[in-house]
């Protein structure tokens, strides 16, 4: 790269859905047996490229897009990979001048929205030709002079919500059609990490590195509530998922609390803290009534019964399973699996994409 990574930029670069610290692996309950991905039925694993992060499925279900920042040592720009969602074979790729991290896709499937985290911006990319149609660079800078990292991105009702990694962090509200900034929600706590739109409450939820969940009214873009489910205990809350039928909010932490929290989405009350160890990405599957959690340090993907929250099944996906994506019918799960970083920000091999048939 042409410039030195700042502390906040490195946090984003190494762990878009994780935490920079490394810990001893937490074991899966003994009753759950696992096997390498190659030996597990219903799994396709493909080594693809360096720097894989989030994924998006075309609404028609005929294309899987994977964001890649590529390498972080002497590599400029990134790539958006287009894969066959059934076989993971390549169907195209778009080389970009900036590095790519989080992804969202328009309802018509014609536009990909990607965060360019290290440069503090977002890009709108045409799925027809892979060209950047529009770009928005944010102006906030940290004390070192580096841009706030544009981390997570969420598309809802024509608006893009983008979490800004800063101290304090911000949430940018952007018109998805014009890629113009409509509002900056300030004082969002230390590092805005995860974003979730609740279908039950009609509110935006944001997680941050200070152990808070922010509840935001989308009509006026104001923070209505600040929950701290673990009180004064250290927590770096990351990713969220919702079970709208029961009003439960699932929140992961793989760094400090090393758990998955189950909260009442209306009150923020802590229902349970799951003893599953380091928890990274999380997805709720209403079709199968299951909850999926990646464990970055343990190298595992867990499937939990959504009623009892007991582990039903686990998959070995070493070294570091990262982001999750669920198909619209709830029958296919996609996972990015990352390689560890060396001290010089290089890796020992390409990251992978895994397709798991859940039937």
Automatic annotation (TrEMBL):
List the residue ranges forming a coiled coil, or say none: none
List, alphabetically, the InterPro entries matched: Haem_d1_sf, Host-pathogen_enzymatic-act, WD40/YVTN_repeat-like_dom_sf
Gene3D superfamilies named in the record = YVTN repeat-like/Quinoprotein amine dehydrogenase
Signal peptide positions (record):
1-20
Print the keywords alphabetically.
Signal
Q: Does the keyword Signal apply?
A: yes
Which domain of life does the UniProt lineage start with?
A: Bacteria
Protein name in the entry = YncE family protein
Provide the species name: Pseudenterobacter timonensis
């Amino acid at each position: 790269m042409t410039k030195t990574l700042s502390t906040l930029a490195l946090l984003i670069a190494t762990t878009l859905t994780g935490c920079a610290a490394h810990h001893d692996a937490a074991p899966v309950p003994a009753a759950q047996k696992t096997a390498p991905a190659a030996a597990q039925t219903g799994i396709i694993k493909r080594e693809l490229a360096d720097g894989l992060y989030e994924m998006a499925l075309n609404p028609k279900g005929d294309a899987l897009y994977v964001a890649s920042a590529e390498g972080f040592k002497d590599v400029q720009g990134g790539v958006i990979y287009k894969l066959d969602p059934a076989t993971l074979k390549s169907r195209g790729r778009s080389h970009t001048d900036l590095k790519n991290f989080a992804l969202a896709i328009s309802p018509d499937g014609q536009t990909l929205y990607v965060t360019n985290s290290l440069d503090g911006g977002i890009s709108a990319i045409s799925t027809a030709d892979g060209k950047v149609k529009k770009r928005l660079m944010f102006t906030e800078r940290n004390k070192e002079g580096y841009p706030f990292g544009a981390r997570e991105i969420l598309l809802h009702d024509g608006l893009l919500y983008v979490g800004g990694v800063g101290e304090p962090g911000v949430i940018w509200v952007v018109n998805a059609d014009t890629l113009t900034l409509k509002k900056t929600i300030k004082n969002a706590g230390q590092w805005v990490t995860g974003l979730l739109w609740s279908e039950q409450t009609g509110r935006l939820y944001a997680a941050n590195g200070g152990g808070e969940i922010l509840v935001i009214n989308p009509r006026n873009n104001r923070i209505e509530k600040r929950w701290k489910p673990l009180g004064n205990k250290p927590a770096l809350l990351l990713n969220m998922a919702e079970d709208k039928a029961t009003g439960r909010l699932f929140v992961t932490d793989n760094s400090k609390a090393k758990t998955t929290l189950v909260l009442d989405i209306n009150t923020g009350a802590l229902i349970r803290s799951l003893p599953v160890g380091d928890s990274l990405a999380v997805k709720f599957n209403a079709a199968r009534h299951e909850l999926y959690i990646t464990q970055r340090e343990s190298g595992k993907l867990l499937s939990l019964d959504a009623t009892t929250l007991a582990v039903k099944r686990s998959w070995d996906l070493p070294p570091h399973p990262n982001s999750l994506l669920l198909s619209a019918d709830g029958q296919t799960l996609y996972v990015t699996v990352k390689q560890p970083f060396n001290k010089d920000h290089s890796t020992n091999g390409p990251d992978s994409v895994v397709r798991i048939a859940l039937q």
